[in-house]
Design goal:
Number of domains: 1
InterPro entries: Nucleoside_phosphorylase_d, Nucleoside_phosphorylase_sf, Pur_Nuc_Pase_Ino/Guo-sp, Purine_phosphorylase
Order of helices and strands: HHEEEEHEEHHEHEHEH
CATH architecture: 3-Layer(aba) Sandwich
Function: The purine nucleoside phosphorylases catalyze the phosphorolytic breakdown of the N-glycosidic bond in the beta-(deoxy)ribonucleoside molecules, with the formation of the corresponding free purine bases and pentose-1-phosphate.
Enzyme class: transferase
GO cellular component, one term: cytoplasm
Strand content: 15-25%
Number of strands: 9
Distance between the termini: 37 Å
Keywords: Glycosyltransferase, Transferase
CATH superfamily: Nucleoside phosphorylase domain
Radius of gyration: 19 Å
Structural class: alpha/beta
Bound molecules: the ligand O=P(O)(O)O[C@@H]1C[C@H](O)[C@@H](CO)O1, guanine
Length: 305
C-alpha cells in the first residue's frame, strides 16, 4: 500500500487505471493538517535542495514532520528536511514544504506531486516553487536566479505525468492550456524585487526541465538538452507545476543555478551535491528576502479571494 489506492468502489475499467491519483487519501492528509492548525493559508512555498532554510522565515510555526501526516511521503534527498510548516511569513499565512519528493527517491510521479493536491484541498491559491539546477545556458552564472518562464516535460513525452489516469474534477480539469503556466506577474514582481536589492544582474528567465536522476547528466545528454532549448536542468518542479496549474493555482517558480553544466570532456571537475549545497548556502540570505517579498505580494492578492 502506498496510501493512494482507491478507497471507494469503482467500475472495473477504472480499477484497471490503477496508477492515477485518488481523492480520498489526499483529502485525508489535508483534513489531518486542517484539524491540527489554526492557520488557513492561501500561499505556499516548496523549498528546493539546500533551500529548507527558507523555513526560518516562518514565525509561530505549526510543524508537521512528513512521517506523521497520513499518506504523505517522507523526504530522503540531501538538503530536504521532511517537514511541513504552517505559520506567518511577512505577515502572510503560509504553508511551507521543507523538502519535496523526486523520482530518484523511488516515488511515483503521482506521489511526487501529491503534496500539491494536498495544498489545493487546504485552500492554497498561489504557489512559489524553488529548486536547485544546473545552468545549461552559457550566459548563466553560478548563483543566478532563473525565473521559470516555461518548462519541457520530458517525462510527459513518454506518458509519465501526474495528471494521467482517471479524471477527478475536484483536482481540476483533465485538459487545460499551459502556455501561461508560470504567472508572468510574479516574474515581473521578482525582477523588480531583485533590481531593488541590486541583484538585477543575477535575475534570469528561461526554460527548465527535469531528468529522473539521481546521477547528474553526461556531456552528451547536456548537449542534447541544450539543443532542446533548455536553460536549466534539475530533477523536480515540472510535476508540481503541472499539478498546481491543474488545481487553478497562480504559480511562480525559480531555479537557483547551483552549478554550471560541464560539456567539455577536458574539464576534470563534475557536478556534485556538495557544490549544490554550497551555492544554496551562499545565496540563502538573498533568497530569503526575495521569497519574503514575493509572499507579501501574493498575500495581498489572495486576501480578497
Ligand atoms: O529538489 P531540487 O530540485 O532542488 O533538487 C535538485 C535536484 C537534485 O535533487 C539535487 C541535486 O543536488 O538538487
Ligand atoms: N539534473 C540536475 N539537477 C541538478 N540540481 C542541481 N544541479 C543539477 C544539475 O546539474 N543537473
Amino acid at each position: 500500500m502506498n496510501g493512494l489506492e482507491r478507497t471507494d468502489g469503482d467500475s472495473p475499467v477504472n480499477e484497471m487505471r490503477n496508477q492515477s491519483m485518488h481523492f480520498e487519501p489526499v483529502n485525508e492528509s489535508a483534513q489531518y493538517l486542517l484539524q491540527r492548525t489554526k492557520y488557513r493559508p492561501k500561499v505556499a512555498v516548496i523549498c528546493g535542495s539546500g533551500l529548507a532554510t527558507l523555513g526560518t522565515l516562518v514565525e509561530k510555526p505549526d510543524v508537521f514532520p512528513y512521517e506523521d501526516i497520513p499518506n504523505f511521503p517522507v523526504s530522503t534527498a540531501p538538503g530536504h528536511k521532511s517537514r511541513l510548516l504552517f505559520g506567518i511569513l511577512n505577515g502572510v499565512q503560509v504553508m511551507l514544504m521543507q523538502g519535496r519528493f523526486h523520482l530518484y527517491e523511488g516515488y511515483s510521479i503521482y506521489m511526487c506531486a501529491m503534496p500539491v493536491r494536498v495544498m489545493h484541498l487546504v485552500g492554497i491559491k498561489s504557489l512559489i516553487v524553488s529548486n536547485a539546477a544546473g545552468g545549461l545556458n552559457s550566459k548563466f552564472k553560478v548563483g543566478d536566479v532563473m525565473m521559470l518562464q516555461d518548462h519541457v516535460n520530458l517525462q510527459g513525452f513518454v506518458g509519465i505525468n501526474p495528471l494521467a489516469g482517471r479524471t477527478d474534477t475536484r483536482f481540476g480539469p483533465h485538459f487545460f492550456a499551459t502556455n501561461h503556466a508560470y504567472d508572468r506577474k510574479w516574474r515581473a514582481k521578482c525582477r523588480q524585487i531583485m533590481e531593488d536589492l541590486g541583484l538585477g544582474d543575477h535575475c534570469r528567465e528561461g526554460v527548465y526541465s527535469m531528468v529522473g536522476g539521481p546521477n547528474f547528466e553526461t556531456p552528451a545528454e547536456l548537449r542534447l538538452l541544450r539543443m532542446l532549448g533548455i536553460d536549466a536542468i534539475g530533477m523536480s518542479t515540472v510535476h508540481e507545476a503541472l499539478t498546481a496549474v491543474q488545481c487553478g493555482m497562480s504559480l511562480f517558480a525559480f531555479s537557483l543555478i547551483t552549478n554550471a553544466c560541464i560539456t567539455d570532456y577536458e574539464v576534470d571537475q563534475g557536478a556534485s551535491v556538495a557544490e549544490v549545497m554550497e551555492t544554496a548556502h551562499n545565496r540563502e540570505e538573498d533568497l530569503k528576502i526575495i521569497v519574503g517579498r514575493l509572499v507579501a505580494a501574493m498575500g495581498s492578492e489572495t486576501q480578497a479571494l
